[in-house]
Amino acid sequence: MVAKYIVGYGADTPEMVIGNLLRDRKETLAIAESCTGGYLSHQVTSVPGSSDYYIGSTISYADDVKSRFLDVDQEVIREKGAVSEEVAIAMALGVRKKLGTTWALSTTGVAGPGGGTSTKPVGTVWIGLAGPNRVIARKFLFGNNRFRNIQISALYAIDLLRKEIFNHID
Q1: Is it true that domain 2-167 has CATH number 3.90.950.20?
Q2: Is pLDDT above 80 for 147?
Q3: Could you state, in order of their start, the residue ranges of all structural domains in the chain?
């Protein structure tokens, strides 16, 4: 039944939909968070039975944690900055490898209200995704409200995973 993969079908939330997809496909998920500070993992684990597919996460807020725990190259962080496509990709690849999952998501950004620059204003977020067939990262500019930036980053990450899984359903 395809309906269980549609967000808003009945009472299904986006995190329920990815849960259904992962469970049905016997696939797993790991998450590396920075700017969302655990909120994305909270959303995923709010679904009963999420232990069927959710393996774990790291909240790598500090650059040193990104390097030590996720193997993000310190030189890449220095050259590109922690809020970059390269770091989002490296975080997703790192947590996927460390936890041995099918899929991995990452978030890195400037949640606000401070910390923005002219090139990376408050609300700049990179979401990374590493899967069995490819690795991608997407940049978003969400605005200057910290809590909304955290919430919407988590929602966009979940939706990015949903879309990518649909692209690879046989």
Answers
A1: yes
A2: yes
A3: 2-167
